[in-house]
Design a protein that fits this description.
The complex is a heterodimer.
Chain A (H helix, E strand, L loop, with lengths): L5 H33 L5 H5 L2 E2 L4 E2 L2 H32 L4 H15 L2 H15 L6 H25 L3 H9 L4 H30 L27 H10 L6 H29 L2
Antiparallel strand pairs in A: 1-2
Helix pairs in contact in A: 1-10, 3-6, 3-8, 4-6, 5-6, 6-8, 7-8, 8-10, 9-10
Chain B lengths: L1 H43 L2 H6 L3 E2 L4 E2 L2 H32 L2 H16 L2 H20 L7 H26 L2 H9 L4 H12 L1 H17 L2 H6 L17 H9 L7 H34 L3
Antiparallel strand pairs in B: 1-2
Helix pairs in contact in B: 1-12, 3-6, 3-9, 4-6, 5-6, 6-9, 7-8, 9-12, 11-12
The chains are: A mainly alpha, B mainly alpha.
Keywords (chain A): Cell membrane, Membrane, Transmembrane, Transmembrane helix, Transport
Subcellular location (chain A): Cell membrane
Membrane topology (chain A): Multi-pass membrane protein
Chain lengths: 279, 293
């Protein structure tokens, strides 16, 4: 590998730099395009009105509300389960066959394609439990999908808490649960919340898991209970960009902008928290 | 007072174990539901006709998997051909050449890339990239495996970069110092010492990137042309495994052969992702062990 030396070495270094730069340029182009096209399409009416005339006019209010409902539902399902599992793995479980199986299942949960979650959610919640295509079914499906990220984040955050904190608390006579809930978890909170925020950002943008479990094609009113179907931003974007002929461009760009604003926004908040608390 | 604290403590201990074990149950449940629904399909549709059938025409009851596998294959080949070299070179820059501030900014930018919903990538592929591809290659339509693969490389690059970066960072300082002390320059150190040493971690990143590509649904549904044919080049329209489920499940009659056939695709996808993740996990462990962690 003589070429790594001398002049050609410098050329290779330059090449590495250029490729790295080229990797990040598309994201700026993409975000630039979305902002440039999307911002003019946003208006108060667009954000607060229901869609009209087969979605070709009006706004996206029900889709925004639907996404918020599904996101809150997802948090309600995944945060308690995810955090409890993380706490169990770090604070309670010993390293035995059971914990190894749990770890393996978490890894595999993380890798299962999102459409499989959709199939599973439909078969179990919609059909078997007869919950129907609803906010509840969609939240349960998305919640399970988010579990691995939250579990992993919780586990890493708890492992980073120094043992001396635990020992000091126990030495003062606190029970194990008091130590965990009043000392360890507060110390690990930044890490846990980063995981939660990142997984919410993912859930808010997912379409495949809600295709058959929660999303409605066209529903120009708001849900009244958790057993209702809802419109959701990602599915709405899919529908208006592929299924509705003669869709006005401005509606598509507006929806695109709102969706990206929410998902990327959440993600940047998560990144900010992590950076702030990382040593 | 004292005993209430004790009771609460032991209750919490049990509750956490139960929740922990519940996770195993979920994975088993997912597998069972996909498996049982698939078995209903294989009861009256021969395995060989499913796995070696070259036609997927649901209207005439032909459920051959091969065209869908071919579709997923071409999309994956394109996406990996872009994301592996680009991802690894970008990682080298981030880990070895960039200063601390640049490093931090680059990592946040690349993470932002992974936050883009796949339906957004699909939209951009549909309205921006496909026109460009159509004109460049003078095709009748820009919706093909190439367009899909390019968009999907955006999803794989963050995964590959993040795992490769971890692997390079985990290497002991002595690797760099020993190599430099022996008179190797920085590039030689990177290519001959650090990359080979970090290989298990990088390979795990590639496997997980592959998993994201093969499992991605909305973007491929929107931009690969939706043609379940035995494509011979990436410039042909294709249909992937995931897109078939997403496109057809909405219209299928529940409990029909077609319905169960889609679960059979789900089973194949489940098996692929299980295999991919197990291999990736094995290499992540290997990489940690090498670093003595």
């Amino acid at each position: 590998m003589k070429f790594l030396k001398g002049n050609s070495g410098a050329a290779i270094e330059l090449f590495i730099k250029v490729v790295a730069l080229m990797t990040v340029i598309p994201i700026f182009l993409i975000l630039g395009y979305i902002i440039y096209k999307g911002v003019p399409a946003i208006s108060w009416d667009f954000l607060t009105e229901v869609p009209k005339r087969g979605m070709r006019a009006g706004g996206i209010f029900p889709a925004i509300v639907g996404t918020i409902c599904l996101t809150l539902g997802t948090i309600a399902v995944s945060v308690p389960f995810g955090v409890f599992t993380g706490v169990y793995l770090v604070e309670y479980a010993k390293d035995n066959l059971l914990t190894r199986i749990i770890n393996l299942t978490i890894i595999n949960l993380a890798g299962i394609p999102s459409i499989i979650y959709g199939l599973f959610g439909m078969a179990l919640f919609v059909i078997y439990f007869k919950l129907g295509v609803s906010i509840l079914s969609g939240s349960l499906t998305l919640g399970i999908m988010c579990l691995p990220v939250i579990i992993t984040a919780t586990r890493e955050a708890l492992l980073a808490v120094p043992n001396s904190l635990r020992e000091a608390s126990l030495a003062l006579g606190a029970t194990k649960w008091e130590t965990i809930s009043k000392v360890v978890i507060p110390a690990a909170l930044p890490g846990i919340s980063t995981g939660v925020i990142l997984s919410i950002s993912r859930a808010a943008g997912e379409t495949a898991p809600i295709l058959f479990t929660a999303a409605a094609f066209y529903l120009p009113f708001l849900p009244t209970s958790i057993f209702d179907q809802v419109m959701a931003l990602p599915y709405h974007l899919y529908v208006i960009s592929t299924q509705v002929p003669n869709m006005p461009q401005s509606n598509m760009h507006g929806t695109l902008f709102v969706l990206v604003f929410i998902t990327v926004g959440f993600n940047l908040i998560g990144a900010y928290i992590r950076n702030k608390f990382e040593k | 007072m004292h005993s209430i604290r004790k009771i609460k403590d032991s209750f919490m201990s049990k509750l956490h174990s139960v929740v922990g074990i519940f996770n195993i149950l979920i994975v088993i449940l997912i597998f069972i539901f996909i498996l049982f629904n698939s078995l209903s399909f294989f009861k009256d549709y021969p395995l060989s006709k499913f796995f070696f059938g070259t036609e997927w025409i649901s209207l005439s009851g032909k459920y051959g998997l091969l065209p869908l596998l071919v579709g997923s294959f071409w999309v994956t080949v394109v996406a990996l051909a872009i994301s592996i070299p680009v991802g690894i070179i970008t990682t080298i820059y981030i880990a070895e050449f960039a200063n601390k501030k640049t490093k931090k900014i680059l990592k946040i930018i690349i993470e932002t890339m992974s936050a883009l919903p796949s339906v957004v990538l699909g939209y951009l592929g549909l309205y921006v990239l496909s026109g460009f591809i159509k004109d460049t290659f003078q095709l009748t339509s820009g919706l093909n495996a190439l367009t899909g693969g390019i968009m999907l490389s955006f999803m794989a690059i963050p995964t590959i970069v993040s795992l490769s970066d971890d692997a390079l960072n985990a290497l002991d300082k002595s690797y760099r110092e020993a190599s430099l002390a022996l008179g190797a320059n920085k590039l030689e150190t990177v290519f001959k010492v650090l990359l080979p040493a970090a290989f298990p971690g990088i390979f795990a990143g590639i496997m997980l990137g592959f998993g994201r590509i093969i499992g991605e649904t909305m973007a491929v549904l929107m931009i690969t042309g939706n043609a379940p044919i035995m494509a011979t080049s990436p410039l042909s329209p294709v249909r992937t495994l995931t897109a078939t489920i997403a496109a057809e499940m909405g219209e299928v009659v529940q409990g029909s052969q077609h319905y169960y056939a889609l679960f059979a695709i789900g089973l194949v996808l489940f098996a692929i992702s299980f295999l991919t993740n197990s291999i990736a996990d094995k290499y992540i462990r290997k990489s940690r062990k090498l670093m003595g962690k």
